[in-house]
Specification:
The complex is a heterodimer of chains A (365) and B (290).
Chain A lengths: L1 H24 L14 H12 L1 H12 L6 H25 L8 H4 L6 H25 L2 H27 L12 H28 L5 H8 L2 H22 L2 H11 L4 H20 L6 H23 L21 H24 L10
Helix pairs in contact in A: 1-14, 2-4, 2-8, 2-13, 3-4, 3-7, 3-8, 4-6, 4-8, 4-14, 6-7, 7-8, 8-10, 8-13, 9-13, 10-12, 12-13
Chain B lengths: L1 H15 L4 H21 L2 H6 L7 E6 L8 H9 L18 E8 L6 E7 L9 H4 L5 E4 L4 E4 L9 H5 L5 E3 L8 H6 L17 E3 L4 H13 L6 H5 L3 H5 L5 E5 L6 H6 L4 E2 L11 E4 L7
Parallel strand pairs in B: 1-10
Antiparallel strand pairs in B: 1-8, 2-3, 4-5, 6-7, 9-10
The chains are: A mainly alpha (365), B alpha+beta (290).
């Protein structure tokens, strides 16, 4: 365990040096360019925002729906939510050209901008999550219930607004669709639940925090409801865009189905949605390995889906200059920083597990 | 008769009824919420119409006269101290105005290409302005120009994403002025829009606001209105266009050259369906239906 931790810390350190390099040279060290203004940093930001949904989902199940079984899990879920929100904020700082001017967001907020809505609602959501974790540790169940109720509209807002950053942009093909907000909510729930499950299995294996098999398997059952809805929303979007056959939208569809993003797209549909669903409804879904595989796959699937939503539109701007070829290839620095973020998430979780009693009322073995 | 009596009674009842403090607070909260909602619900077009600008500076580009020589691009780069890019860095170029080569048509030997010289459209409903989280990009209400505050910009590139015309450019690295030689030859104009930029911020076409400012100051001193012919050569790109394809002027003046040209049957604007109301008006090439 110690060796792993040291390794993770080294990765975080190298990524930090990479970030200093990026600060020094500018965003030219990334693969981003003229039409592809946003790259893997924004994808990671959106992905981490999505993961934070897991915390709220499990908390709502245990505190509001009154499913006692999930109570011991809610603390892990909260910790995962808090860590992912912090990492999302770091990801957005990576993407800024002038991170030293971050305070301008609070000094001169411009209320029309979806980005400002997002900054505020993410901060509120983070405060709510921290408060819920705190109350859960102190064992104040009644107040916890109140916070759990408040956090549900906050949860809907966080994911909707993150979707609206993209969905309100009329100039980008493929983004300007009303289903984006519901789609973001459902994929957030999928990735959040998947991340909570993966974290639980990880802490069972490596941190000696014992979660019951029963809890893990019955949490995994919720994929049965979530994955078909996710598939349905994606289908609605593609049918609407494809049937209407508006050139600016079909180019994005073609990019997804057979173009540059086909590999990532079919990975998402096949390994990210269909296979996990089949696993969960089969006998294999009744085992720990089954649930683990399904959640790992859908976790990766949602990351692929985020790439598919954010990136392809950039390759088809409304005005194309034929003279300049469009491409986007993430550079080493981008991969390094994103890897660093994931490593940091593991470090933060291990640290949190040392400080916070993860099992409500339970003892650590 | 009876009806009016009843109405009067209802009114007097209402006025007589004292508003309790609680009610008042409730009313205030409701009114506040209503205000916020009504402001958000207004379409962007309506918001822009609130103040009618004094001038509506616009450009007309005659595609029949444009030969795609990009002299406008070069002149603009020199005038505004714009970073240069090597051919390898084309995808990170900064060109406030550039000529888009859009669509190839026909088969050899009858090939033609749609060319589109494209400065910033200075839209009346600019999509880039509402998305800026810090108000770094704003619309100059008096003149209808869309400008950028370099010292405010945080480099999130939301505006570059929102602009359907690709008219906004990001400094991916420290601007390259081609070494010492060019740095000494930079345009010394102290106008803030012209000072050399730095890495991590967005910049864009200003319709040569430095020259407009100077002209307006001069006109104010002489206590008269701007004459149309004084505007003809304001923009560097208009000044340098060898085919005389570009024209600049005030759309609020119905007799100006741009207003006359804008009324032409050949006039059209780019991506009009997006409702951005661009103020760069193109004239269709002659004898070309597309």
């Amino acid at each position: 365990m110690k060796k792993t931790l040291i390794f993770l810390l080294i990765v975080v350190g190298v990524a930090f040096i990479g970030w200093l390099c990026q600060l020094q040279i500018g965003l030219a060290v990334t693969g981003m360019n003229k039409p592809v203004f946003w790259g893997i940093y924004i994808v990671t930001f959106v992905f981490f925002i999505g993961i934070s949904a897991g915390g709220i989902a499990v908390a709502a199940l245990s505190h509001l729906a009154g499913i006692e079984k999930f109570k011991p899990v809610s603390r892990v879920a909260e910790v995962v939510a808090i860590i992912s929100l912090i990492l999302a904020m770091i990801a957005i700082v990576f993407d800024l050209g002038r991170p030293d001017r971050l305070m301008h967001l609070f000094m001169y907020p411009q209320i029309n901008s979806p980005l400002v809505w997002d900054v505020f609602v993410i901060n509120i959501y983070l405060v709510l999550c921290v408060a819920m974790l705190f109350l859960s540790i102190q064992g104040r169940t009644k107040l916890l219930k109140v916070f759990a109720v408040i956090s549900i509209p906050a949860f809907v807002l966080v994911h909707s607004i993150t979707a609206w950053i993209f969905g309100l942009m009329k100039s980008q093909a493929g983004w300007h669709t009303a289903i984006l907000a519901p789609l973001f909510i459902i994929s957030a729930l999928v990735s959040g639940l998947a991340c909570v499950l993966v974290t639980m299995l990880f802490s069972r294996r490596f941190l000696g925090i014992h979660f019951d098999d029963d809890v893990i398997i019955s949490l995994g059952k919720y994929f049965k409801g979530l994955l078909p809805v996710l598939f349905y929303f994606l289908f609605c979007e593609f049918l609407t865009a494809g049937f209407a056959n508006i050139p600016t939208h079909t180019v994005v569809l073609r990019e997804l189905f057979t173009g540059k993003f086909a590999g990532i797209f079919w990975f998402d549909i096949g390994l990210g949605i269909i296979i996990p669903f089949l696993i969960i409804i089969s006998r294999f879904g009744e085992t720990i390995t089954g649930v683990g595989t399904a959640s790992l796959l859908s976790f990766l699937g949602v990351f692929a889906e985020r790439i598919d939503i954010v990136l392809p539109s950039f390759f088809h701007p409304a005005l194309m200059n034929l003279r300049i070829p469009y491409s986007y290839r993430p550079t080493g620095v981008e991969f390094l920083l994103v890897t660093g973020l994931f490593a940091l998430s593991a470090v933060l979780f291990i640290a949190a597990a040392k400080v916070i009693p993860m099992l409500e009322g339970g003892e650590r073995r | 008769m009876e009806k009016t009596d009843k109405a009067e009674e209802a009114v007097s009842n209402l006025t007589r009824k004292k508003l309790k403090r609680k009610d008042f607070l409730k009313l205030g909260a409701a009114a506040g919420a209503a205000l916020v909602i009504s402001d958000l619900a207004k379409p962007m077009a309506a918001r822009a119409d609130v103040t009618k600008p004094k001038h509506r500076y616009a450009m007309v580009i005659d595609l029949a006269r444009c030969i795609g020589c990009e002299a406008c691009t070069v002149a603009c780069k020199v005038e505004h101290n714009i970073s240069i890019a090597s051919p390898k860095e084309l995808a990170r170029r900064i060109q406030w105005t550039e000529v888009y080569f859009m669509k190839e048509k026909g088969e050899y030997p009858h090939v033609n290409v749609d060319i589109d010289p494209r400065p910033c459209m200075h839209c009346e409903n600019p999509p880039c302005v509402p998305v800026c989280p810090v108000g770094a990009t704003y619309q100059d209400k008096e003149r209808g120009l869309v400008l950028q505050r370099y010292e405010r910009c945080i480099g999130c590139r939301y505006c570059t994403v929102a602009c359907p015309y690709g008219a906004r450019y990001f400094n991916w690295a420290k601007p390259n002025y081609g070494g010492k030689l060019r740095e000494e030859a930079l345009n010394p104009d102290p106008h803030p829009q012209l000072r050399p930029r730095y890495k991590g911020i967005v910049e864009k076409c200003t319709f040569c606001v430095e020259r407009l400012d100077r002209l307006e100051a001069k006109v104010e001193l002489e206590n008269r209105a701007i004459r149309d012919e004084e505007l003809h050569n304001i923009c560097t790109c208009v000044n340098t266009c060898m085919g005389r394809a570009r024209h600049f002027g005030d759309l609020n003046d119905p007799e100006s050259t741009v207003s006359k040209l804008a009324r032409s049957g050949r006039a059209f604007r780019l991506l009009e369906e997006l409702g951005t109301e661009p103020k760069v008006i193109y004239l269709r090439p002659l004898g070309n239906k597309a």
